[in-house]
Amino acid sequence: MAVPADIRAVKRPVNTIVDDSGRDGPKRYAVRERSGAKYVHGGNPQPRNGKVIGHIIDHIYVPLEEKTAPIAPDMLSYGASALVKSVTSDLFHDLLAVYPAGEAYSIMSMATLKVIKPSVTAIWMSTHYNRTFVCMDYPGAALSKNTVCSLLQRIGQDGSRRKMFYQRRLAQVAKDHHIAIDGTLKQDTSKVNDLSDFSYKARVKGCRDVSVLYAYDIELMEPVCAEVFPGNSIDASSYPAFIRDNDIRKGIIVADKGFPPSKIKEELRERPELHFLTPIKRNDSRISENDMLSFEGVLTGIDAHVLYKKRQIKGGRYLYSFKDVRKASIEEADYLARTKASKAFDSKKYEQKHSVSGLIVLESDQDLDPKTAYLCYDDRWLLELVFNRYKNDECLDRTNVQGDFSVLGNEFVNYISTVATCRIIRKARQCGLLEKVSYGDLMDDLSSAWRRTDAPPEPRSDDGYWVHTLKGVFEELEALGLSIPEPKPEPKKRGRKPKNPDAVKPKRPRGRPRKDTNQSVGSL
User: Fold this and answer.
1) SS3 of 11, please?
2) N vs C: which end of the chain shows fewer Cβ within 10 Å?
3) 3-class DSSP state for residue 107?
4) What is the pLDDT of residues 102-135, one digit of tens each?
5) Which of 226, 222, 229 lies closest to 193 in space, CA to CA?
6) What are the backbone angles phi and psi of residue 136, rounded to the nearest 5°?
7) In degrees to the nearest 10, what's the CA dihedral of 149, 150, 151, 157?
8) With contact defined as beta carbons under 8 Å apart, do 313 and 319 qualify?
9) Distance (Å, whole) CA 444 – CA 465
């Protein structure tokens, strides 16, 4: 198609021609450069057209834009990612010791984003990675949807690396530390993996689950290892496998009634530095045989009013019985309220309930002080807080993946996120911030603290590199040690400011001034 004369008349680079594509739009008239000549029959040279170098748009020559590297953002969300990084340096070093550097960067990035942005899915990983300082802390991490799914699959397939990582975490557990073991159920409705199955809560939840067991160091106040089991696997059957798979060899296991020591006889025999402290059922015959309801005294140094008794039994083990008077009254009141509503009071059953209300009897292979045994089990509620935080604040109540290996890999990343969350809570509580704001509000405040990417590595509250950050957020950053406070002026000294000796005027003579000095000029 012939190019109109007014288009050809537009000023453009020499040795070029205008080509009409015939399609409507701003790039209809392309400007091509001459790339040489070709010879046709008879030896006559004809010009050869080359690549497009621009277009004629609205009677103006517009050159093509040169392809440049992607534009790096000049500001990113800083506060929340900096907080996670400040408490996870040892976890990152353990990952580098076990996994290739590229995978360690991706794993740490995913775990950090799950803390910063709960319920984040694989589709949005890359988006939130590129809008936070996570991309600066762990550069080059591959977090596209397909890459994340492939990585989770590889992590789940390589059980030996996961075990090596957990071994490095368990190596930090001291012999006298107490390890609480418990499990939680997570919804998993996948039909393509063998871990998803109906648990004992299926009649209430109406869906399939997977079971996740955690070992929690009570002294460190954080999990030390985790493992996934099928949803229909009860805790007692998973107990020995969990200890063997993670090779837990030292510490005192503080477990619930679902983890009886009879299930880990072989594991205890092979691990002399591993001990247990486990409650027994209230109808256990050993309670009456050893007269554990005849208490010896009251525990001192605790807020509750607790009766106690300690006794060594056959086999060298010890029983510790405790009766919390306040809990006993609550249990009795609840029982009487139920019998009152049903009008089915039974005096014999009431006597049985009355004797064991508020009672807990612990069995151990260790000779412990009764107060120590009670506090060890009482601190076990911290693990329940971890599970609550795990499911609610981190939104990890569902697996959101399908295959068996993907579930295993996903829970490995969730473990790192859970450890980071426990450490953040401990750090924020020590700073007194959780007395003013909730954990969720604190993370939202910190996420609103944006910082320029060309800023120096050591942030200061007055360095001018912050972007629309509020004063209250600065106070939180400073309390957490994430920003150096602005220097405050020296306090003023109390009292009147001393006079300048050079400016002191001569004193007026004592007495009343003479009368003539008070006369005005007009009166003269």
Assistant:
1) coil
2) C
3) helix
4) 999 999 999 999 999 888 888 999 999 999 999 9
5) 229
6) -90, -35
7) 110
8) yes
9) 20
The SS3 of residue 305 is: coil
Alpha-carbon distances, residue 347 vs 327, 331, 344, 353 (angstroms): 21, 16, 10, 10
Q: Give the number of other CB atoms < 10 A from CB of residue 367.
A: 11
d(CA 186, CA 399): 7
Report yes or no: 320 and 361 within 8 Å, Cβ to Cβ: yes
Looking up tokens 């590297």 gives: 69
Residue 339 has φ and ψ, to the nearest 5°, of: -70, -30
The pLDDT value given to residue 500 = 67
Residue closest to 57 by CA, chosen among 21, 96, 98, 15: 21
Task: State the Rg of the chain over Cα.
Answer: 37
Cα–Cα distance measured from residue 381 to residue 376, given in angstroms and rounded to the nearest whole number: 10
Centroid of chain to Cα 472: 22
Residue 519: predicted pLDDT: 54
Q: Where are the alpha helices (DSSP H) in 389-517?
A: 404-430, 439-447, 471-479
Percent of the chain with pLDDT over 90: 35
Structure confidence at residue 396 (pLDDT): 46
pLDDT digits (tens, 9 = 90+) for 448-457: 999 999 999 8
Per the document, the length of the chain is 524
β-bridge partners, 32: 17, 52
Cα separation, 516 vs 511, whole angstroms: 15
Strands 60-63 and 45-57: antiparallel
Strands (E) located in 194-289: 209-217, 222-230, 251-255, 274-280
Closest by Cα among 254, 303, 308 to 279: 254
Q: What's the CA gap between 122 and 482, in Å, rounded?
A: 29
Number of Cβ within a 10 Å radius of residue 10: 15
Amino acid at site 154: R
Scan for tokens 């290996």, then name that residue. 405
Q: Which is more confident, 175 or 413?
A: 413
User: What does the block give as tokens for 259?
Assistant: 């983890």
Q: Which of 485, 488, 435 is nearest to 462 (CA)?
A: 485
Q: What is the pLDDT of residue 312?
A: 93
pLDDT tops 80 at residue 275? yes
- Please give the model's pTM, rounded to 2 decimal places: 0.72
**Residue (of 116, 143, 149, 117) closest to 130 by Cα position:** 143
pLDDT of 171 reads 86
Burial class from Cβ neighbours inside 10 Å (0-12, 13-18, 19+) for residue 338 reads exposed
